[in-house]
Each structure stands twice: as C-alpha cells, then as structure tokens.
Amino acid sequence: MDASDVAQNRRSRREHVFLTATLEVAGESVDVVLRNLSSEGALVCGKKLPQPGDAVLFHRQGLSAPGIVAWYHQGLAGIQFDIPLYPKELLRHIPSKENRPTLNIKRRPGLKPRPLTAGERAIVERWAAESAFALGD
After folding, report:
1. Whole-model pTM?
2. Fewest Cβ atoms closer than 10 Å to its Cβ: which of 27, 83, 96, 116?
3. In a domain, 117, yes or no
4. What is the spatial distance between Cα 51 and Cα 13, in angstroms, rounded to a whole number?
5. How far apart are CA 43 and CA 1, in angstroms?
6. What's the CATH code of the domain at 53?
7. DSSP line for 15-75
C-alpha cells in the first residue's frame, strides 16, 4: 500500500495547514500546532501531548470540538472529533487560495560558466606559477 492508497481510503478530505490551536485536557490547556484538519479529526504536534484515549476539547479561533486522542507518536497526535464538523464551519478556519498573498519572488540570475579571457588566463597561470604550492600537489 502506498501513500495514494491511504489518501483514497480516508473518510474525509484533509486540509494541510500550519496553524496554532489549543487542546484542553483535564482542565489544562496545551498549545499545539495544527498540521491538518478534516471534518472528522485533526493532526496536531506539540510538547506534552495527551495520550491515546484521553478526552480532549480542541480549540481554534472560536471553533471548539470535543474528541479523543486516537494515536500518539513522536510529538504528533491524531484527534478524532466526537461529532463531524460541518464543511462550512471547517473551511472558515482554512485560508482560501484566493485570499492567500501572492509572493513576487525575484530570482537571482543563474551562474553560467564562461571561458576565461586571455588576460584572465594569464593572471591565473602567473598566480599558479608563483604560489608556494604547485597545482596538482
């Protein structure tokens, strides 16, 4: 099974994001980074994440969803929501492609090799002959 098979077997589409969120666990707040979000759950990363089976309350800008920690591995945790989120509720927290700023990146010109001129070659040969180390040593 490859990654495309896993993506096709998902119950709901995941939106890949990099946003801050909070998990409330047993009255304590844990800051997390939201890595992806779907109507059924979320992938979060952070320090001091709750363990699988722990009940959590997921918070992100006015969105609160109860759920449980489905799995945990090396600083990542999967949160399964108790009740699926409505698509419009979900999408309001994900920046649309139209609202994303366009980056006007000016790339520097590539470096292209060019042959040395006769004067440049003479300088290099003189420098090589006068240096303490002979080329190839």
Report:
1. 0.59
2. 27
3. no
4. 25
5. 21
6. 2.40.10.220
7. EEEEEEEEEEETTEEEEEEEEEE-SSEEEEE-SSPPPTT-EEEEEETTEEEEEEEEEEETT
